[in-house]
Specification:
Layout (H helix, E strand, L loop, with lengths): L8 H13 L3 H8 L5 H5 L6 H11 L4 H9 L10 H14 L4 E2 H18 L4 E5 H4 L4 E2 L2 E6 L1 H9 L2 H4 L5 E4 L17 E2 L14 H10 L4 E4 L13 H17 L4 E4 L2 E3 L10 H6 L4 E3 L8 H13 L5 E2 L17 H10 L3 E5 L9 H8 L5 E4 L11 H10 L13 H7 L1
Parallel strand pairs: 4-5, 6-7, 7-8, 9-10, 10-11, 11-12, 12-13
Antiparallel strand pairs: 1-3, 2-4
Helix pairs in contact: 5-6, 14-15, 16-17
Bound molecules: zinc ion (2 copies).
Length: about 425
């Protein structure tokens, strides 16, 4: 009956229905079971399709604002399968949200605009400026600094691509200068938090990682694949051993760069980390981070982080607060106790340049630096394009007024080795 391979009677029926009605009954029925802001609601931690359906069916929750009201009134907690803890966690997530769009989305939109301008306005040069360039967490206006201002403004005003954006666009001519002494991306001599495809979520081979690091002019690169304690799987002792063999081989092929063999350890609920003492001291260094139990109450969460900081085998605490902008709130902890302990134990705090993390934030870096803490600007790269995340970490360190000397990956390998 049909000549197209792979299209049977069922799909042919759907095509006929779509041509006749302009939609599909099955899809429409499913959509009607979902709240109006299903996309935003579904990004809340622990939100499931079932919970979305029940919230809509039982409480008529259509928007984030509806859900917030339902939690404050105590109704959401009573919904089947939700409970007070999840409701409280949703409320904290919602209350972290601000007007505008989260930074990672704003950067993606702004970069598309920059290419759009440079493609369509001959000779125009554009770059991201204002709140996005400063890496504010929430962006209410996309600001672009352009050469050929008037022409570009006229182009933007008439562009359908701009009208479709969720935030307005402004064109300026500012040229921000970084005060001397603050860390610049080109001062970084290496990156100490990088994943290869030895991690379940890594999308680059070890050979690629080393080649990219060398092409960036780094003196050293730290390999920190996830260790075994991570819920979705990581390296055990045997796999680490195998990885060391490959690292040594790559080291011979790339004499221009030193490869440090580290690991990203998972901090368990009780504050302990992966691996025994012997294995830990065999690694060149370790990065430890929280990846689960992010909603524990303050005392337990603080004790957990303090235990990791006090562990002499932990060199760096990765993405301390665990926040994902617009997705999940920071952990609830006593930050002054944590910063005091990190200074005491000389534990380095990471500034993670991932756009949805930006963790520590500029404000927290500023507070931490008053304790005499040292930092590392890391990419937490899982794929080649993410190596550039170190630039974001530098912007945050600049905003906090941190001097280059306090950023350990501006140091020589020799100096770094005595510290790790
Ligand atoms: Zn991590
Ligand atoms: Zn990582």
């Amino acid at each position: 009956m049909l000549a197209v391979r792979g299209i049977g009677a069922a799909i042919a029926g759907l095509i006929a229905e779509f041509r006749a009605n302009g939609d599909l009954g099955a899809v429409t029925a499913r959509e009607q079971r979902l709240p109006y802001q299903a996309w935003a609601l579904s990004r809340l931690p622990r939100m499931t399709p079932n919970r979305l359906h029940t919230l809509k069916a039982d409480l008529k929750v259509e928007t984030i604002a509806d859900l917030r009201r339902a939690i404050i009134e105590g109704a959401a907690q009573a919904v089947r399968g939700v409970g007070p803890q999840t409701a409280a966690y949703w409320l904290r997530t919602i209350d972290e949200q601000r007007d505008g769009v989260p930074i990672y989305l704003a950067v993606a939109l702004a970069q598309q605009l920059v290419s759009h301008i440079e493609e369509h306005v001959p000779g125009a040069r554009a770059r991201v400026a204002g709140a996005i360039a400063r890496l504010d967490e929430w962006i209410e206006e996309i600001e672009l600094a352009v050469s050929g201002g008037k022409e570009v403004s006229e182009f933007l005003m008439s562009s359908a691509a701009v009208a479709a954006l969720p935030v307005p666009v402004k064109v300026t001519r500012d040229s921000p200068q970084v005060p001397a002494g603050l860390v610049l991306p080109e001062e970084l001599r290496g990156d100490l938090h990088v994943h290869s495809d030895w991690s379940p979520d890594g999308r680059q081979s070890l050979a690629q990682v080393v080649a990219i690091a060398a092409s960036r002019g780094y003196e050293y690169i730290g390999i920190t694949d996830h260790a075994v304690g991570l819920r979705f799987g990581g390296l055990d002792a045997e796999r680490l051993q195998a990885q060391r063999t490959e690292i040594e081989k790559l080291g011979e092929q790339h004499p221009e760069i030193s490869i440090l063999h580290g690991a990203e350890l998972n901090i368990a609920r009780d504050g302990t980390v992966d691996f025994d003492q012997e294995l830990l001291s065999w690694l060149d260094y370790t990065v430890a981070g929280l990846h689960s139990f992010l909603s524990l109450e303050r005392d337990e969460q603080t004790a957990r982080v303090l235990a990791a900081i006090a562990n002499p085998e932990v060199d760096i605490i990765a993405h301390l607060t665990g926040r994902r902008i617009g997705i999940r709130p920071p952990i609830d902890v006593d930050l002054s106790a944590i910063f005091a302990a990190a200074a005491d134990h000389e534990t380095i705090l990471e500034v993670n340049g991932h756009l949805d993390r930006l963790d520590l934030s500029a404000d927290l870096i500023k507070i931490a630096s008053a304790y005499g803490i040292e930092f590392v600007a890391d990419s937490d790269s899982h794929r080649p394009a993410e190596f550039a995340n170190v630039g974001n970490a530098c912007v945050l360190l600049q905003r906090a007024g941190v001097a280059s000397e306090s950023v350990v990956n501006t140091w020589s390998l020799e100096a770094l080795r005595t510290r790790l």
